[in-house]
Specification:
By secondary structure, the protein is α/β, with parallel strands linked by helices. The protein has helices at 11-17, 42-57, 87-102, 119-133, 147-153, 164-173, 209-212, 226-248, and strands at residues 4-5, 23-28, 62-64, 108-113, 136-141. A 5-stranded parallel β-sheet has the order 1-3-2-4-5. Helix 5 (147-153) packs antiparallel against helix 8 (226-248).
């Protein structure tokens, strides 16, 4: 096998894999609007594809679980098609996944997240479900660690949703996510209340996405390329692999890194 992907395995194959598997990687996405040029399954698909690539690099030490393909997305609900979980619903799903896999001997988990709105809930999962179940739960954004490429190649002041970064990743990993004939820039409201509440501001809080952008996108997706997506994804995979090798105490020669 290229990677241990639970959805592609029989119970007998899983039983054999558990002889070497130390960690379950749980892809976490969302089902929400992504502007006029990306489909609403974007986050779930990107989380899945990056998790599989990470699983290939970290084989045979990790197992990839089914994707949690809906997330905490209330800020997108006024755009048609968005489905949002309550934070407690996502926590309940994660608790059940952890409890199930703990029965099979897995005690380390990485929640690999492709949707920013999930991060605070995943932090709670790490600090509450982990101690409750006596397991280690870590969480990471899929490509947030690709800091060098992002700082060098992304020029938009505000980006992160259906932007040049995310569209580039999709063009590399799952091009069917992109309506290439409709790619456009984010249509910002420059004076919106959201400017006071964005991450990094002294005070943060809830705002609806239409307060920030009329078309549901931010950044400038017209600058997206497949090559940029590959560069971002590969830098992130390299950094995540190094961290996982340290957490799992495995040597580089024992993985495909």
């Amino acid at each position: 096998m290229k990677a241990y992907v639970l959805t592609d395995m029989t119970w007998e194959e899983v039983q054999g894999a558990l002889e070497t598997v130390q960690m379950a990687i749980v892809p976490v996405g969302a089902h929400e609007q992504h502007g006029v040029h990306m489909v609403e399954s974007c986050d779930a698909v990107l989380a899945t594809e990056i998790a599989k690539k990470l699983g290939e690099r970290m084989y045979p030490h990790v197992l990839i679980t089914p994707t949690i393909n809906m997330g905490v997305s209330p800020h997108h609900l006024n755009f048609p098609g968005t489905i949002s979980l309550q934070p407690e619903t996502l926590l309940a799903i994660l608790r059940d996944v952890v409890r199930s896999l703990k029965r099979h001997g897995i005690t380390k988990f990485l929640l690999l997240n492709a949707h920013g709105g999930n991060q605070s809930t995943l932090s709670v999962a790490s600090s509450s479900i982990g101690p409750e179940e006596e397991v280690d739960i870590y969480y990471a954004k899929t490509t947030a660690s690709a800091k060098e490429t992002i700082s060098e190649q992304i020029t938009s002041t505000i980006f992160g949703h259906s932007c040049e970064r995310e569209v580039s990743e999709a063009l590399y990993l799952a091009p069917d996510l992109v309506r290439t004939d409709k790619v456009t820039k984010g249509n910002f409201n420059e004076r919106g209340r959201y400017m006071q509440l964005r991450p990094g501001k002294p005070i943060q809080g809830f705002y609806r996405y239409e307060e920030m952008t009329q078309n549901g996108s931010i950044g400038d997706a017209t600058k997206a390329t497949r090559e940029l997506g590959e560069q971002i994804v590969n830098e992130a995979l390299e950094n995540l692999s190094v961290e996982l090798m340290n957490l799992l105490n495995v040597k580089p020669e024992s993985v495909r890194f």
